[in-house]
Write a structure and sequence with these properties.
heterodimer, A: 185 residues, mainly alpha, 67% helix, globular, B: 137 residues, 6 helices, 0% strand
Chain lengths: 185, 137
């Protein structure tokens, strides 16, 4: 039980993620979390504005159910399966974050400097989250998938397009982390 | 009832991603700084085992529970959309510290501000849908 309450090592977590992918394939579906954003647009009536959203979203109810489960899973994990361990980050990471103005790096899952309502209710804080979310939502559909669809499913299926997309994910991520974050914070 | 199995898969997925810390903004930052093997180990071992799973499905002609031959649709061939779309996604991923799966999961862990990110991501998808025919693919 103690091992469950502590953070799980990569060699346990990675294979379990592969298992999620394989179970969904066995259920006759594919693992793709960002498709739900398109479904949400269709439910909201976006089909009136673009063909892209004119599809039978009811066929995607299974995926929305996975999302509901994921929300519940997040709740269960922090409420019942955690011992309050901090994140064991590289000390260099903690010191780099300190330089950028992030305190208590690793004490919680997310930095208060970005996700606390106090931060969001400023023009800068609000803009950061809206721009970040927008880029994720726009980019994932343009690329035809996100981490689950390309990095896990696509690479497992040896798809060259997914490798190109993952290289793109890293170009963007490295640009943000090394050049833009120091300008923003 | 047929949705119950998907609910359980989602719950399992949510628990794994929290316990692995892959939903943590800090872990994503650390990954892009190449300061830890943790995230590379997670993605690497997931892909390694994923290749094995899909190979077994093909090799033994496993049928899905719906009775169909398991067959993942191939991604359409292109370069521009994957590299450009991927880069845009990566910029957002490193800033929010969360990709779409973790966004929902983090909402469940009690981060209410994630609703704003999910709303913005939905808007991003909507704008892509509006511009789709004008963008190079």
């Amino acid at each position: 039980m103690e091992a469950i309450l502590q953070p799980w090592p990569w060699y346990v977590s990675g294979p379990l993620i592969a298992l999620v992918m394989a179970i969904l394939v066995f259920f006759g579906k594919t693992f793709g979390m960002s498709s739900n954003l398109r479904t949400l647009c269709s439910i909201g009536g976006a089909g009136k504005y673009a063909d892209f959203f004119r599809f039978d979203w009811k066929a995607q109810k299974w995926n929305l159910t996975v999302v509901l489960g994921a929300i519940i899973g997040g709740f269960i994990a922090v409420q019942f399966l955690s011992d309050g361990s901090t994140i064991d980050l590289n000390p260099d990471t903690v010191s780099d974050l300190n330089t950028l103005g992030f305190e208590n790096a690793g004490a919680t899952l997310l930095p208060a400097e970005i996700y606390d309502w106090d931060s969001i209710l400023t023009f800068k804080g609000f803009s950061i989250l809206v721009i970040a979310g927008f880029l994720v939502g726009f980019g994932t559909r343009y690329a035809g998938g996100c981490t689950s669809g390309h990095a896990i499913t696509g690479l497992s299926n040896l798809q060259l397009p997914s490798l190109i997309a993952v290289i793109g994910f890293f170009i963007g991520g490295l640009l943000m982390t090394h050049f833009l974050l120091p300008l923003i914070f | 009832m047929k949705f119950l199995k998907f609910l359980f898969v989602g719950i399992f997925f949510g628990i794994v991603l929290v316990k692995s810390e892959a939903v943590s903004w800090y872990r994503i930052f650390e990954m892009f700084k190449f300061q830890s093997f943790h995230m590379y180990g997670i993605i690497g071992s997931a892909v390694f085992l994923g290749i094995l799973f899909l190979w077994i499905f093909r090799k033994f002609k496993v049928k899905s529970i719906e009775g169909n031959q398991i067959n993942l649709p191939p991604k359409e061939r292109s370069f521009t959309r994957y590299i450009v779309g991927g880069t845009i996604f990566g910029l957002g991923w490193a800033l929010a510290g969360a990709c779409p799966g973790p966004m929902y999961i983090l909402l469940g862990t009690g981060v209410s501000s994630m609703l704003l990110v999910i709303a913005a991501a939905t808007l991003g998808t909507f704008v892509y849908g509006m511009l789709k025919n004008k963008l190079p693919h």
